[in-house]
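User: Here's a chain of 76 residues. Predict its fold as tokens.
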Amino acid sequence: MIPKNDTERAAAHQRIRNSFRRRFASTADKYRSKLIEIYGRDKGSRIKCAEAFELCEYGRRPSTAELKRMFLLAER
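Assistant: Prediction complete.
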């Protein structure tokens, strides 16, 4: 499964990178309104890739301030 020469390896590497880029760009588009809410219209609209996390339904729910601290969403 590993390409045998440099050209094939480079092509495989690029295919994998493009696949991940599409995946995380899709997530950014899906949650665009939340990104805008967190980062503001200007920054949130320009974010190209994102990763989403789901909070566990068990236990307590963290506050917005705690979420910002945990995911380093503090104002920059």
